[in-house]
Amino acid sequence: MNPSPTSPEKHPGASGLFSMARLKPAAMPPFSGWWLALGPGIVWMALAQGSGELIWWPYLVAKYGLGFLFLLIPACFLQYPLNFQIGHYTAMTGESIWQGFIRLNRTFAICLWVLMGISFLWFGAFASAGGTALSAMTDFPKGWSTRSQTLFWGYLSIAVFFIAIRFSRGVYRLIERIMFAVAAVTLIGLLVACMHPDVWQHIPAFSSALFWPQWPAGRLWESEDATKLLTAVTFAGLGGFWTLFYSYWLREKGVGMAARHVAEPNHLEGWTMPQGTKPGPPLKQWRRFLWVDSGIGVVGNLFTTLMTCLFAYALLFPEGVLPEKYQLAVVQARFFEVQWGVWGRMLFLFVSAAFLADTWLTTIDAICRINTDMVRQLFPSSRDKAPKYWYRRFLYFFTAITLVTMLLDAPGPLIQFSAVVGFAGTVIFSGAVLILNHRALPKWGHPSSAPGRVAGVGLGIACCTYFVLAITYVGLQLKLW
Fold this sequence. Notes:
By secondary structure, the protein is mainly alpha-helical. It has helices at residues 34-37, 40-64, 72-77, 79-93, 97-104, 106-119, 125-138, 146-167, 171-193, 197-200, 203-209, 226-234, 245-253, 258-263, 281-316, 334-378, 387-405, 411-444, 453-477; strands at residues 24-25, 271-272. Strands 1-2 form a two-stranded parallel ribbon.
């Protein structure tokens, strides 16, 4: 293993595979209380609404009825142990998960970093997906094609969010407030729309299909939908490299040892409880908080996804209407239209535009944080510049990249490409997280730093499942079965 770039000395008493890493001993900060700590899980839930909930699961239900619905609950809960363990590393050390990957193996971290960069060249597609809704809502600029109107609104939303990030004094607080509002409006709107009789009458058949597949008569599987299915499973929540953002939100929130990062933002080493001390109440309280906060993201996302799928089954499937191309977030407006007429349609288009476009806002902030973190960890000379310097350089770079890649194709194919690359990353880094928390962390620091057996078994199952899904997808693409 390669040494950590910031901590070359051996940890006293450490030996074997991970002997080169060290963490500074420090007391675990006291639990800050639920009201102050909650937030990252809600941001996670709101960001997840930008893809799986609104686009791909409704697409599958609109096209194949209840045939794939039984995959939704397992796909969502598959991410639960992974989210918890990503957050656990940050809570135990105050470091980001990417710093953990560097500690684990420098070459591995760099390769994964490059793969992440490829995945996020295309996330401007979420802004253009939001543009499809604004285009349908305003039909502005008049006389322009749907594609041109979509790009216009996508570029405009990026400009607004870019200015907000560039001149905000507290970017995470800004993002948290926006995502809280998006999550609340979406949840309340979907619940009210769900009360319509045209939707309500389909609940018995829909509920049964959650546990037993019901393939529609006369509907054949089309192999070109394999990538859409993988995208739906990957983004049944916050999939791919997006999952790793959770570590940075917890860090900004000061969860566990990350409170020391907030107090000393330029400190590059992590912390651990001193050897020989007994784990106290703060450790148990922070660990309990992580289970709840991760669960808010997973369960909240599952609940809203179930509602959008129910609407798709009740309103889109009978007519064979699909969300695709430059209507990616438009046909779903029927979800609110049946309850409130034309004003409901306009409201849905506005909300869908908001939580698709804010995907760009939250994503660019997170990838700027990750890249700033990686540059400062891997290249010591970069530390001569303040973190804000690098953050802004990456903000300019990725904004420019997304403005270009939005022109290459409709939003759907770009999101699917990002999902495939992200899924490949998930297969790789989920195993690394398992090794990091259960083998490396106890050797680097306090033995009680390991997440526990239940969390380990859960992540082990998730790792195996992701691997099987990857093999299945490759086989489908190569037409091996």
